[in-house]
Amino acid sequence: MASTMSDVGSTRGARDAQQRNENQAEGVRLQKVLSAAGVASRRKAEELIRSGRVKVDGIVVREMGLRIDPDAAVVHVDGNRVVLREDQVYLALNKMPGMLCTMSDELGRPHIGELLVDRKERLFHIGRLDMDSEGLLLLTNDGDLAHRLTHPSYGVPKTYMAEIPGPVPRDLGRRLRAGIELEDGPAKVDSFEVVDVHNGRAVVEIVLHEGRNHIVRRLLGAVDHPVSRLVRTQIGDVQLGHQRPGTLRKLNPVEIAQLYKAVGL
């Protein structure tokens, strides 16, 4: 009897595995996947495919009958990566000053995890900001994208607005672009621009792809222009815009595609 039950269980398990494989092999029609991802209507998606504007796993697709696994395939339209998995999350947060870039804090201080208590996903924050700084943070559960966006070798630029004492010497931008020697090695900015000067204070825009802790504050402090306020306004092509402090918003498909492109995904 035990042998018979074991045989039945083995047969059923093999049948279930075969059915799963068949379902996966069948997949979902490409035009339906593109429509569900919000790229275009089903009919427009078919036009995109026929015109050779769609790639699946790096290969241009022109036929209508192709079925893919949305959880495994990599799809690009006009060179832009399309997010297919419904469980992937991409958010922008406007961090307020006084808030920690941590998901919890033993001392009970304000932290970004408090804004995410209703979310079931495990999210990574991209672009740490110190407690006194504010502005754009990206949050995602896409581990590959998060890793590349934070790794300095991919050179994703970050833009900051910093308030510093005026007047600003005419050669300050040149010095910062050439590089400043810090205690942990030289650092430099990609660009520097004075945006405003008023009542002895100046607002400057700095773009750099350095990822070291407090790098903007340390750079400006090293040239005798300590920062009194620091706001990150952009990561890659994703902008903070007019998003209210302390709020989250979903990135749109164009912004997500821009991030993928910036890191070669």
Q: What structural class do the secondary elements suggest?
A: alpha+beta
| Number of separate strands | 17
* Major sheet size, sense and barrel closure: 9 strands, mixed
**Integer average pLDDT:** 87
Instruction: Give me the strand/helix succession.
Output: HEHHEEEEEEEEHEHEEEEHEEEH
Shape: elongated
Percent in strands: 25-35%
Radius of gyration: 24 Å
What is the number of helical segments per DSSP (H or I, 4+ residues)? 7
Structure description:
With 265 residues, the protein is an alpha+beta fold. Helix content is 28%, strand content 28%. The chain is built from 7 helices and 17 strands. It has helices at 2-26, 30-36, 42-50, 143-150, 172-178, 215-222, 253-262; strands at residues 28-29, 54-56, 59-60, 67-68, 75-77, 80-82, 90-95, 124-126, 134-140, 158-165, 180-182, 185-187, 191-198, 201-208, 229-235, 238-239, 248-250. The strands form 4 sheets. Strands 7, 8, 9, 10, 13, 14, 15, 16 and 17 form a 9-stranded mixed β-sheet that branches. Strands 3-2-5-6 form a 4-stranded antiparallel β-sheet. Strands 1-4 form a two-stranded antiparallel sheet. Strand 8 and strand 9 (134-140) form a beta hairpin. Helix 2 crosses helix 3 (42-50).
Short account of what is shown:
The chain is 28% helix and 28% strand. By secondary structure, the chain is α+β, with helices and mostly antiparallel strands.
Walk me through the topology:
Elements: H1 2-26, E1 28-29, H2 30-36, H3 42-50, E2 54-56, E3 59-60, E4 67-68, E5 75-77, E6 80-82, E7 90-95, E8 124-126, E9 134-140, H4 143-150, E10 158-165, H5 172-178, E11 180-182, E12 185-187, E13 191-198, E14 201-208, H6 215-222, E15 229-235, E16 238-239, E17 248-250, H7 253-262
